[in-house]
Amino acid sequence: MDFALSAFAAIFAIVNPVGNLTFFVALTEGYTPELRRKVINKVILVASVTLLVFALLGNYIFVIFHTSIPAFRIAGGILLFSIAFVMLWGGRPGTKLTDRDRSEAMEQEVVGAVPLGVPMFAGPGSITTVMVFMAEASSPTLDLVKAAVIVAAILGTMAASYVLLMYSDRITKRMGRIGALAFSRIMGLILAAIAMQIILVGVFGAIELFG
Questions:
Q1: With 0-12 CB in 10 A as exposed, 13-18 as middle and 19+ as buried, what is 82?
Q2: 18-19-22-28 Cα dihedral, nearest 10 degrees
Q3: Tell me: the pLDDT tens digits for 79-106?
Q4: What is the pTM of this model?
């Protein structure tokens, strides 16, 4: 249960669908309800497939690049902590969206795949998160229950994101920019704590492996 709560909290916090609503509403302004639904479906499909692929196949990266799991935990934890730090101060992580992505997105008719699906909902931070948790589920041998929990956490986050996007107009009107910013900071705090836990597990794992 602890692993399940930690995985879902980390994935939901780094995807941060509530924080992404403002940009989604601005980007799809003037879209017909039908076109907006198509964009939402594409966002969820692209983000889900991306995260599931890296969750299920990410461990092969360790084999290809001869990287130890503790090293990846430490590096991933540091990356997540840096993202959480930016979220705590009310900024948008650099791993989410560049100025070029934003300017190009405004010129596109359908933006569900890029930049909304990737990197807004499935960016480097969320990809690293699912890989770190899957690495934990695979050490020393693959725990099928933990692996299923990670997949469920990804699908649960995407399901919640779908609902939030469908009602994005109502939510953003009620929350406003300040409300969305406050929620992002809360998610940043949760993510920072999880990142520190990942780093500590990686450090102790490295000491045990190389000590």
A1: middle
A2: -70
A3: 888 888 888 886 655 545 555 555 554 4
A4: 0.80
